Sequence to fold (122 residues):
Amino acid sequence: MSYVVAIPTYARVKALTTKTLPTLERMKCDRDKIHIFVANEEEREKYDAALNGEYRLIVGVKGISRQRKFYHEYFPAETRIVSIDDDVEDVLEKQDNRMVPTTYTLDELAEEAYGYCEQVGA
Fold:
């Protein structure tokens, strides 16, 4: 299934690099799917330096609501978008009455989630 990952972020380089990106890596997310949306050129430079130019950075707009609207308009209309915050420490699932890191890949979770969306016409 085809989808993109959109991560809006502002002044949270450390959280992004120590939480969200390692989580996506553990979930075998293809880096080519990841789009990191920053507020301005100054932020882009900070993130680019911290990420060693290894991720796609897009200068959007400042403000979380405005940034989410921006990236929904940035991608073509039928693009499937997985939006993830810049401070996600892990994705958990319940096993035997306790929460543990998921064993699913992001591809598997996205396929299941968008499958449900299609079933209900969302």
About this structure: The two ends are 17 Å apart (CA to CA). The longest helix spans residues 106-120. The longest strand covers residues 4-8. The chain has four helices and six strands.
